[in-house]
Amino acid sequence: MKHFCTILFLSILCSTSALSIDAWQNIRFSGIGADSKVNMRTEINQNNITQNKILYQNGTGISETDLTLFNATTRSYQAQVNAGTGRVYYGLRKSIGSELPEILPVRYSGTGLPAPALLTKVSDSPVDNDIPNHCDIISDYVTLTDTKLIVGLKTRGGGFPTSGGFLGPFYSYMVGVADPALDDPYAPGAVAWALHYVNISLLSYTAGLYKITGTSTSDITRIASIQSSIDTATNTLVMSCDLSVLLSDPDFQAFYNPDNPRVGFLSLINKMALSGLTPVVTQMDYSSGARINLSPLYVDYDQPLYTLNSLQMNNSASNMHFEAVLNKPENRYILGMSLHSTDGRNFNMTSIDPETATTRIYRTSNLKVSFPEGDNQGLKARTEVATGVYEESPYYYFNYVRKLSDPEQLDIQVVDDMLLLDWDAVTHSFAGAPITVDYYIIEYSDVPNGTYQTLGQSPTNSFSLPLDTLENTGFFRIKAVKNVP
What is the reported pLDDT for 278? Predict the structure, then answer.
């Protein structure tokens, strides 16, 4: 583009999509810092938050750290957590006043049943020394894979006996899920599904996934098998079932929202004794319950944090600025960007696009007056991906001149019916910066103040044309041209 021409502008449509899970809005992660950690940010537009944590794997188990408020205006929270390689899963925990906690468990990426330490804790239960060890719930847990719901139940001790003898009493250990809007699991019409560790041969009850539609033993139906294991070191029962069984049940589908997949969660231990042939069920202990969100939250660390799509100069009569177009995943963000020149100058860049936008446009301020003139000036984008950690692009090269000097010392000769024009080459801008012009335009008019017509262009500081193409008298004007963006 010529120095004196109108500048064309590039218009880019920005995407403002973001990763949101229930009340956790615009979840995003920074680049990896020097300490192999990342910052996670989210907006939560809720009041009276009593517990607000992000959960992550620490190598051998699940750790939790507080999400702290860093911008009260936007209700933005952040925390620093471990990064990793490949796909890394995270979880969330939040409590509002006296409401049930909302928990998004850290997903399990292994095969088989996980160790108890890799389950996300749902709740703690106070010790009750008035009931047997194996009936006293200490805590319950949950995680899931793409195909399995996995739960855990920890008691005070004594293993998980299912029978006190041939005629009982019998014990059952259940972790159940239901409609998260259900306040009373015993209300008429309530339906729940429980991973049930039990063995009562007299009633043909064996371990499995049960659908519960009422309070009578006849309202409990085994609908699928489960997998289970007992960790004797921690006295924890781990059970899993196929998610597909739940998802295919019409009663489950009636409340389940795939866009916000939440379930109510509760653990309980029952004792069953026989009064004659009539079973009498006593509830021994139960957990405080929670609402579980089954959405996956993860970062693919083997994918680039961002891609610098372009770096360009936009130049008009009154404004010159540089513009960088950055593309990134919806759940990632960078801390900032600046431009650095080969001669040591730095230019800050800002973006009005949200941190969560998948395309962000960064611009410098107006550098029309302050940016140095010259040829092939190198600029590289320097991106802060984490606190004190930077990535740099290759150099981009630009020409810039505000005003050119006019060509001087025009010499005109006639040789063999040809008119020869020669002038001093323009080697500096009007302000004195060394430059190389791209070409010259030769113009002609028969009167000094008339309308000049273009005779041609020349890449050098000379030009020739047949003498008979001109009037007897005339005036010449030479313009130097420098292409700038």
Answer: 75
- In DSSP notation, 404-473 reads BPPPEEEEEEEETTEEEEEEEPP-BBTT--B---SEEEEEEESSTTS--EEEEEESSSEEEEEGGGS-SS
H or E element in which residue 246 lies: helix 243-247
Dmax (CA) for the chain in angstroms is: 133
Contacts of 349 (CB under 8 A, 6+ apart): 322, 324, 336, 337, 338, 339, 362, 363, 364, 381
Span 100-123, pLDDT tens digits: 999 999 999 998 999 999 999 999
- Domains, in order of start, for the chain: 100-298 (2.60.40), 304-400 (2.60.40.10), 408-481 (2.60.40.10)
pLDDT at 186 over 80: no
Residue 226 burial by Cβ neighbours in a 10 Å radius (0-12, 13-18, 19+):
buried
Length of the chain: 485
CB 149 within 8 A of CB 240: yes
Query: Is residue 117 classed as helix, strand or coil in its secondary structure?
Result: helix
User: Using CA atoms, how far apart are residues 307 and 309, in angstroms rounded to an integer?
Assistant: 6
Residues 478, 460: Cα–Cα separation, whole Å: 12
Rounded alpha-carbon distances, angstroms, from residue 152 to 123, 179, 345: 11, 20, 59
pTM comes to: 0.83
Task: Return the pLDDT at 381.
Answer: 95
Q: When comparing pLDDT for 215 and 445, which is higher?
A: 445
Environment class of residue 117 by beta-carbon count within 10 Å: exposed (0-12), middle (13-18) or buried (19+)? Answer: middle
Q: What is the pLDDT of residue 18?
A: 55
Rounded CA gap, 217 and 352, in Å? 62
For 131-179, the pLDDT digits (tens) are 999 999 999 999 999 999 999 999 999 999 998 777 779 999 999 999 9
Q: Residue type for 437, please?
A: V
Are 105 and 296 in contact by the 8 Å Cβ rule? The answer is no
Q: How far apart are CA 185 and CA 112, in angstroms?
A: 31
Structure tokens at 259: 């866009």
Percentage of the chain beyond pLDDT 90 is 80
Contact 386, 406 (CB under 8 A): no
pLDDT of the residue at 456: 94
